[in-house]
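Thread: "does anyone have the structure for this chain?"

Original post by V.I.:
We have the sequence but no experimental structure in hand. Need at least a predicted one for the grant figures.
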Amino acid sequence: MKKNRLAVAIAAAGALALPASAQAAAYQDAVLATSPLTYLRLDDPVGSTIADDATDQADGTYAGAVTLGAVAPFAEAGTAVALAANGTVAGEVDAASRTLELWVNPNRVPRGAQAGIVAHGIPALDGWALGIGAKRKLAIVTGGVTLQTKITLASNAWTLVTVTWSDKVRVYLNGVLKKSFNGGPASGGGAFVLGANGAGAFTGSFSGKLDEAALYANALSAADIKAHFDASQLAGNTTLPSITGTLAVGETLTVQPGVWTNAATATRSYQWQRCDENGDECDDIDGAIGTTQVLAAEDDCMTVQVVETVTNAAGASTVISDPTGKVGPCLPPDPDPTPDPTPDPTPTPDTGTGTTTVMNTTTVTNIETVTNTGSNGQVAQSSASGGCLRLMAGRLRTKLRRYGVLRLRATKNTCLSAPITAKVKVRKGTTLKSVRYKLDGKRLKRIKRVKFAARLKPAKLTAGTHTLTVLVTPRAGKASTFKVRLRLAVS
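Reply from O.Q.:
Generated one for you, tokens below.
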């Protein structure tokens, strides 16, 4: 082992003085110096066989939608392979493995989906698998046990992922330790498969690019792992970028760049992402690629993070900041203890005597007209006296098909001396761009710093029937208009 470490140190140090044409050899020599069980460089230009550079005994074969000759992770790494969801590269490695080393460039995984990346043996028994699991975080399945790492792997960008199994399971990104867990190593060997669903460990299959895949019988040291990444000549991150500013809608956040090595002449680029309140399920914010970002209404009660990419002569390195706290003002939890029902795939009338009609046109979809006069969320004439306009129920709830629930709130069983609040509670898993309201054809002003809400002022309401129009615009797709007819009475 000491001999191997010395070879790695010599190879890595020599790489700094080598011309670009020799850098690939420096990386390859660093890998081979640590005695891999198999090393698939994935440079093969033609044919169905992938050469094993370690022993020439574990050559791989590819099947399905596999494209050779893809752009590699660093300048002198040769080429990579691009896999569609049904594409695989597979070899046979009978010995148990204690280290996986693989360059990964995944396509973005849809919300709620999973994607296997690589597996060795049978993960449900004595093998292991690595993939993108719940909430689009890296997950490891070893001997049938799933370890959720809470690590986000950058999409559409190259990352060196290294996993070791010894006294703990350790996960490294670009040579830096990110997470360690309790958990024993796998004890079996067998098929070494790149792509697909991680030998059944994940519900979806990988799509994207892979390169420089290696397995080792022993757990590589942190020094070995860093030396391998450094041999690529890419910029290395030592301190993540951070975000400063006030976490409130309308305020401006600023990126504080990360600290990098080998980046004296490098360029930097950024992509802001919006995440849920727990910092999970993150998606790119369209057009948000500057060093500053103004928080919008859509960010209320959400968190944000930023992706920083540093590009030098060898290629691009990408890291992701930690997510911020929740953006304010963030309304308090709904005081109504009754949970919202899951919106039905088609609208249904409320219980009582209310009626629902649905119309579709070529320009606006799902126009709902709802008249409520029954007992569920109704607006009706009070039996009390007092000669004032009254809203008898505390809330009026209307399902907005595919989007969530519209709620109207007012003080219960009193004269309407204060505005009625209209607010859309968005369905879980749905992302809206905007919600606009009109009362009897006149646009209502939204409530500042309250997401998807407006107020109906009592001065604008009279006894009789009023029409509240709600225009809902999703992040993707056509806008939908919903019309709710309100019946008020003087008592």
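V.I.: this helps a lot. DSSP finds three helices and 36 strands in the chain.
O.Q.: and The longest strand covers residues 464-474.
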